[in-house]
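Hey,
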Amino acid sequence: MQNINPPNDESPSESGKGFQGEQLSFLETPVFCPILPPSGSAAEQALNDLLARDLTQIDWLDECKGWRLSAAVKSLGYLGWEPQSIMVQHPSWPNAIARRVHHAPRG
């Protein structure tokens, strides 16, 4: 198989294609300043749990906190909390894949 674009010795700025990679910004990174969720809301429950430990939908169901963890996590995102998630296999449901949500504090 042939290489369609053979390498050249020109720098990216000389070839007119620009640089690839991370874009540099002269603006400061915004300060992490989230808003607290309303008292008694599912978002408040989710925030309290996420500050203590990682959480999955299955855990949320087992603790009888409702079935809409994703809505509570989305609300936290709107409030500036920036929750992170990954897909995992849950030990109590081996045939299902669950989303594990955690709060990664800025540092």
